[in-house]
Structure formats: structure tokens, C-alpha cells
Amino acid sequence: MPFGVYPQLHHHFVMNSFSNPSSVSSSVFTSAASGVLSSFELSSVAFFGRSLAEYTQFFPLDLEALPGRSVLDVAAGPSSFTSAATRLGIRATAVDPLYGCRAETLAAYVRLDYVRTVAQMRAKPEIFRLKSFSSIDEAERDRRAAAEEFLADYEAGFLDNRYVGGALPRLPFADGSFDVVLCAHLLFIYERLFDYAFHLAACRELVRVSRDEVRIHPVCGPDGRPYAELERLRTDLAAAGIRSQVVAVNYEFFRGSDTTLVLERRVKQADFVTY
Fold it and tell me: What's the order of all strands across the beta sheet hosting 210-217?
């Protein structure tokens, strides 16, 4: 069984890692309107990944500064970051509730979720800005290539502990295990699935396992509006000894996704509360 709280939201059949993916409802994603803004509603956490090139833009990352450093990718899904970063000499680790499933099961998740996610893109093109791609077709090809690289690396990487089963808000790592911790397209974007308490606990947990800093992208909901509880979150994190900064990035795949939240601890590692 994967660790943590949110696996039951990952898919209808995630509680049984080796279930038949054909049993999944065909309505994982449904269209919705939020106020006057067009939006898409995510009714479960999608197993959808991105490439190293996208990571360098939306976090953003200086790849020349990372070789030899340890980096954790949280809720990584089928992203190729860990595979590609490892080849560059970065000590990369990825964690996701679905890691521990067989490779063919993960491949089935990829097939299902990519069809649905790309259908969302095509159904509501007004949402998307595509600063890094010339078209939805190019974005789809890039994300499918990322997933293929992940799947090719998964079995060997799992045995080598590069892919670890786990979920927020309780990660299976010791305090300060990684220099940099990354989390993309889980917090804020799924604000309708996860309440404020989850977001606060998740941010604290990301900081707990980091030695340097945490980067979370994007800082908006699926309608492109900034996370409604952002100021409350930053205030509560400050009270827990965690600095926060919202950083503009030269990236915007969908409307509003042009900022990243950076977190750093103010207190010594030994003083931080372990969950």
C-alpha cells in the first residue's frame, strides 16, 4: 500500500495497486466554470508528467549548480526529471503514491490520464498560454516522451531507490535528507481536493525533508486565480519558522501558472518539529 493521505484521490483503483485499469470511470475529468473564468476541474490526481526542460523553466533550476547535490521530486508521477537529472550527475530521487506498482500498471495509468488530460487541453484552449510550446500537439509529444523516459527508467530506478513510494503530508525520509525539494502540480492546483490543513501540513513536510529550499509550482488553482489561502498559508509558515517568497518565472503553460513558491527554514534543523 502506498504511504500517505492522498492515494485514494489518485484514482478510483489506486487502493489496489494491481487492479485492472479498465475499471476506471471514464469521467475522471469534467469541465467546469469558476466565476467568469473558464476552468477545468480535476476530480482526482492525474498521473501526468513533464520533462527536465520544463522543470528548469517553472521551478526554475540552474542545472550547472546541481551536479552532486541531492534533489527530491515530490508527487513526481511519470516525469522524466529524475531519469534525466541522474544522467547529469544530480542525486535525484522521486516520490509518488503509485511507485511500487508494476511498470505495466504505471504504463496503463499513463495511457488513461494522458488521453484525458490532453482532451481537457483541446476542449478549453482559451485556458492555455503555451509559452514554451508552439501548440498543444507539441506539448503532448513532449509530455509523452517524458513519460516514456520515466517508464524505461522505472524498474532499475525503483531497485536503486530513485523511485520511492510515498505521499504528502508524511514522506518516508529523514529530516534534511535533500538539498532541494521540488513539488509540481499537486498543491494549489488541486485546491478542491485538498483542504487548507493539508496544504499547511504538506508545506511543512516539504521543508522538513529539505536542507536548503523547497520550490512549489504553480501557485494558482485550475482557473488561473492565485491560491485563495496563500496569505494565510504564508503567515502560518512564518510562525513555524519558514520563510516564503512568490517568484515570477518565465513560464506559463496555462493561465496564471507563471509563479513559483519558494520556502526556506529560518530555524536550525534540530529545532524543527518532525512529524
Answer: 163-165, 91-96, 70-74, 178-184, 210-217, 259-265, 242-248
